[in-house]
């Protein structure tokens, strides 16, 4: 055995304690860490021929790399839609690495049974009792799997199996949506359906929600040809929601697969004041849920839900002599793209077991309150204005005066350079804007006030 490996094995408990101390130091220091860091160009190092052992590797990481990392896990990072990691989920993540289970097959471990239980809990949170689910790496892969099953459904309508014959046998596929997320286009590209297959349906005035009447017109224009409809349960810019129940009702008149992208917006179901936004979610054929956003588990974790497991099995079947046949309840290796699967479910199991529905409802409610509070504070000076109402957990805003691309970019840079908070740029209805997305379990009223002051101060620096 390599000398460094042998020494690390002999000292493993003490080394893990050193890692624990380092992790504690990073965690407790996250409040003082700059929320964002500009990337630096670093020279390439040669791969070491001989290692230095875990202790010295840890010291080298703490000195050379850790100071360059951002505070994105902290309470004032409002870029993209980024959660943190609850204490329980961090524990689950550590144990996931220690146990190192391949959650593909149920032949040698209870790992997939834990995943099934965790998926069932998550399904009940969102009213998806008629769906079955599987863990994937995040929203992009969840959308990919849902659309792959939709592709197979389309083939079945014309008497072919795309899984066997290929997408070329299917012909052009109409995909209708109002405000699809970028991962929808990426998934369609990977699936061979193509980005150009998306047909944009008009949205309601001043909204990102699709106009259901115009959607009906677009479906009628297909003259009975089956289609895929992608609905949103929470858009990225303004967290707008399509009327899912009204869209689902159109299936009485038109043949289409309903895929709902509820990556983070589906968590509105946990807030009694906002649960109506996801009314009808259970009617979808497939649903995307992202967990490293509002469930606050470490990257990467998402769940894909479907009401058509038979079609899912047809797409992702992994047939080999050394694998069990998919009889009864199929193993996850027959339901998702990966054959080798990290036990992502363990982080969610820990967090859901530790805090339950009520604890996660509290996170959702506090984040919604924080988004509304930030919106009120940053617009009070008159330097900034909202470009859309705060519908859930995102405040989308721009400069009140001359919101050009250059000035909004300068504002974003000034906010990031403060180290106090971080927001990301966007364009909404032709306006250059910034968006602050709340999804971290640690964010308090004091964090919101601190971030609001930094954003206002940055706006004051602009010419």
TrEMBL record:
Pfam families: Pyridoxal_deC. One of its GO terms (molecular function) is aromatic-L-amino-acid decarboxylase activity. Signal peptide: none annotated. Keywords: Decarboxylase, Lyase, Pyridoxal phosphate. The modification N6-(pyridoxal phosphate)lysine is found at residue 293. InterPro entries: Aromatic_deC (IPR010977), PyrdxlP-dep_de-COase (IPR002129), PyrdxlP-dep_Trfase (IPR015424), PyrdxlP-dep_Trfase_major (IPR015421), PyrdxlP-dep_Trfase_small (IPR015422), Pyridoxal-P_BS (IPR021115). It comes from the Bacteria. This is Glutamate/tyrosine decarboxylase-like PLP-dependent enzyme. It comes from Nocardia tenerifensis.
